[in-house]
Design brief:
The protein is an alpha+beta fold. Helix content is about 25%, strand content about 40%. It has a six-stranded antiparallel beta sheet. Keywords: DNA-binding, Nucleus, Transcription, Transcription regulation.
Length: about 90
Amino acid sequence: MSSSQSLCLKKFQATATKVSVHMILRFDGMRSWLLTYKRLDDGIAITDGWKRVVDDLGFKLGCLLVFTPFESYVDFMLTAFNVDFRVVCQS
């Protein structure tokens, strides 16, 4: 397993504010990125900042943020604090 593939298995944590459309994505508690997103009926769409995460961590485009477990997506929409994500990359 390459290092970029193993990174895909690690958890991220995101913190967002209730009133804005910004999310801080943290990786291993050491690195962080500010993402801009919009809420959709069935999820969120990151509108700015994801390319920096992809570039910094050596992912390829096509990698997705996935809420882990899915219930944390509901928590994110309701409380918008400290939600775990994982990154899934298409092979």
